[in-house]
Design brief:
Layout: H1 3-8, H2 10-28, H3 33-52, E1 59-61, E2 65-67, H4 69-93, H5 102-120, H6 124-142, H7 149-180, H8 185-190, H9 195-211, H10 221-227, H11 230-252, H12 260-282, H13 288-310, H14 315-342, H15 361-364, H16 366-379, H17 386-400, H18 404-428, H19 443-461, H20 464-473
Length: 477
Amino acid sequence: MSMQELWLLLPVLIVSGGILAVMIQASIKRSHIAPQGICLVSLVLALAALVYQYPTDMQTITILFEYEPIGGFFSLLLLMVGISVALLQGPYMGANSKEVAEEFYLLLLLSCLGAMLLVMSRHVGSVILSIELMSLSMLAMLAYNRERKLALEGAMKFLLLSGASTSVLLLGFALLYANSGQMMLVAMLQAPMGLMAKSGFVLVLAGLAFKLSLVPLHFWTPDVYQGAPVNSTLLLTSLSKAAVFALFIKLILHVPAEFEADMVRMLSWMAIASMLLGNWLALQQQSLKRLMAYSAIAHMGYVLVAGVIAMGVDHSLVLEGVSYYLLAYLVASILIFAVLTLISNLDSQQDLDELSRLKGLFWKHPWLATIMTIAFLSLAGMPITIGFIGKFYLLTLAVKLSAWWLVTAMLVGSAVGLYYYLRVIFTLYAPAEGDIHQASGAYVTKIWIGIIASSLLILGILPGLLGDQMRSILAIG
C-alpha cells in the first residue's frame, strides 16, 4: 500500500487507533471518563481529517476500497452520529452505573469503523467484512444492559435474523460471482444477466432490505428498538441505516438495463408498502421507541423512492436527494433519541419512552420538549425545518419520473405521519403528571444537541446554505 493510499485512509486509521487506545486504557485502569474522552477525540479527529482531505473525485484504495465524494459525505454523517452517541452515553449511564463503560466505547468505535469501511467498499470481501463488523458490534451494544430481559430478547432476535439476512446476502453474491466470475461489485453487475444472476441480485437486495427494515422484511425492528438501551437504539436507527443505504444505492446505480423494468416494479411496491404500512402501524403505538421503529420503516420507504428513480432518471439528482433526505432523517433522529437518553437511565429496567409518562414534559423541562417538538415537525416534513426540504427533494424526483403511485403513497404516508407526530407533540404540552428525571451536568452534550437543533432550523429556513453547495460537495456535474 502506497503512502497516498494510507493518507486517504487517514480517518479510518484514526478510528482504528482510538480502538487500540481504548483497549490499552481498559487494561491499565478501569474508568468512565478516559474511554469516553479517547472515543470522542478519535471521532472528532477523524471528522477533521475527512473534512481536510474531502474527496473531489473517485480514487481507488487497493482492490477493496474506493474514496469518492458521495462516500465522504456519508462518512461525515456516520461520524456525526458516533460523536452524538459517545456524548450521550455519559449522562445515560450516570456516575454510579452498575455497567462498565470501556466496552461500550470500544464497541461504538468498532461499529463506526465497520460503517465507514462499508461506505468505501468496492469488493464483495470488504462488503461482508465491513457489514459484519458493524452488525456484531451493534449486537453487543443492543444487549449492553444485561439485567434487561427485553434487551436480551431483542439482541437474540437481531442475532438470529441478522445472521439469516447475511446468509441470504452471501448466497446472492455467490450467484452473481458464478455468473460473472468477478468479485468487484461493479464488474459483477456489468456481466450479462441470466436467471441465476437476476436471482442473485434479488437475494442481495433482500439481505440489504432486511438491514434497512423495508417491508416485508421489517418485522424484527419494533421489538429490537423497544428492548435495546435507548442510546444503542439511536446508533441502530441512524448509523446502520445510512451505511447500508450507501451500499444499496451503489448497487442500484449499476443495475443492467435489461433488468431495470423488473427492479423498478419490485422496489416501487416495496417502497409503497413501507411508507403506508410503517405509518399506519405507528398510529397504534404508545411506546415512543416502537413508534420510531415504524417511523424508520416509513422513512426508509421514502428514501427507497430515490432508489427507484435512480434506475430511470438523472443519477446526480438522485444522489443529491438521497443525501439531503438522509441528513434530515439523521438529524431529527439524533435529537429525539437524545432527549429520551437524557430523561432515562441505563440501570433502569426500562427507558422512559411511554407516551403517558412523557405527558407534560414541556412544563418540567421546556428545552427538551422544544427540541423534541422541532425534531418531530422535521420528520413530518413541516416548513422551516430541514425535513421539509428533504421531502421536497424526493417529491420533485418522483414527479420528474411521473411516478404518480409513488407520489400518492408519499403524500398519504406523510399525512398519516403528521397525525401521530402531532399526537406526540400534544402529549408533551399536556398538563404535567408526575416528575420526569433529567440527567444532571452534561453541558458539552447539551451544547452539541443545541447545535444540531439549530442546524435543523437554519437549513430549513435557509436551505440554500447547503442545497446550493450539495452538488459540489458530492462532486456531481
